[in-house]
Amino acid sequence: MNPKKSAQHFSLHDRYMRSILANTEVAREVFEKHLPAKILAKLDLSTLSLQKDSFVDDKLRLQVADLLYGVNIEGNPGYIYLLLEHASTPDPLLPFRILKYATAIMDAHLKKTGKKELPFVYPLILYNGERAYPYSTDLFSLFGDHASLARSTFLAPYALIDLSQMPDEVLQQYLWFGAAALLAKHARDPDILPIFQTVLHLLKHLENQGRFDYIYVSLTYVAKAMNVPNPEILATIVAENFTETEGEGIMTLAEYWKQQARKEGREEGREEGREEGREEGREEEKHAMAVKCLKMGLSPEKVVQLTELPLKEVKKLRH
User: Fold this and answer.
1) Could you give the angle at the alpha carbon of 139 between the alpha carbons of 134 and 143, nearest 5°?
2) Strand, helix or coil for residue 96
3) Furthest C-alpha separation in the chain
4) Rounded to whole angstroms, how far apart are CA atoms 303 and 88?
5) What is the DSSP letter of 140?
6) Are residues 7 and 124 in the same domain?
7) Range of weakest confidence among 1-5, 69-73, 107-111
8) Do 243 and 216 lie in a common domain?
9) pLDDT tens digits, 174-232
10) How is 167-200 classified by DSSP, letter by letter?
11) Taking the CA of residue 290 as centre, how many other CA atoms within 13 Å lie in the half-sphere pointing to its CB?
């Protein structure tokens, strides 16, 4: 059959079958005779109605026709999807195509109703090829050697890694994933510094593996996505733990935090100049910063450089 006659044949078949099956009495008889008993028992075929939507790919429009029927299933809206296969060459990937059509129907239903509950969709194929249909209608047969694994896992509940419910102590055990997991878990913390010491330990492991790309990406994430109330502390920690030989990008981030600290310092100075007791406020801030630095493991001498507090005073804060 030449393509022109083939297209005409499909078009005539389409129009004929659509016009007949648009009659719900005809469709009801087809469903009563051919739907599985366990599904038929749950349907209220008195509610059967033809829907206007079509979900067949444009490229297949001349090979297949589809009809979508709405029907109540145990009192809730559902659908029976009738696909009219009249292609001269059966498609071995038909089960996968049906899966795509079914999800398209579900998506359209969600958009139409605004609800968050998926409708039940059952496909039924009407085939009138010249020979018996030669392929399996079982989706899992398409997975080949992995059919058994797919049958036991595909469409089953997915595995979920809920970082919010995993203790930090557990995440620290991941030598490779740990740093990223901890940063992602604490990304919305008001201050990233308390967890950063632990992250730093894991990043140092990655440094030993030569994975400076991981380190740079992680520090960039901290710079762009997280709250760093004391950027100068973070800049000092980064600068002391990673050298110039480990990549200019890391040092650039350290300089970025230093600039942020200077900018915030100027803004805070201007604000404090408008308030009474600004000197006392600065001293309290220095003490708070010193305590954080000491907790992060910085030496008292380095804390003196950062806060300009007397060494004796800083040493007292360690106790």
Assistant:
1) 95
2) helix
3) 98
4) 81
5) G
6) yes
7) 1-5
8) yes
9) 989 999 999 999 999 998 888 988 898 899 888 888 888 888 888 888 887 888 877 77
10) -HHHHTT-TTTHHHHHHHHTTT-S-SHHHHHHHH
11) 24
Q: Cβ(64)–Cβ(37) under 8 Å?
A: no
Structural contact between residues 71 and 43, judged by C-beta atoms closer than 8 angstroms: yes
Q: Which domain holds residue 171?
A: 164-274
Q: Which two tokens stand for residue 213?
A: 């790309």
Is the pLDDT assigned to residue 248 strictly greater than 90?
A: no
Per-residue confidence (pLDDT) for residue 60, from 0 to 100: 43
Residue 141's contacts (CB-CB under 8 Å, 6 or more residues apart) are 95, 147
Same domain, 7 and 149: yes
Total domain count for the chain? 2
CB count in 10 Å sphere of residue 237 = 21
Beta strand residue intervals within 229-276, DSSP E: none
Tokens of 215: 């380190």
The answer to whether residues 93 and 85 touch, using CB atoms and an 8 Å cutoff, is no
Which residues have a Cβ under 8 Å from the Cβ of 30 and sit 6 or more positions away? Answer: 21, 82, 124, 126
Helix or strand or coil: residue 73? strand
How many residues belong to the chain? 319
Judgement on whether residues 144 and 260 belong to the same structural domain of the protein:
no
pLDDT tens for residues 126-139?
887 778 889 999 99
**Confidence tier at 294 by pLDDT (50, 70, 90):** confident
Segment 73-90, tens digit of pLDDT:
988 888 888 877 655 668
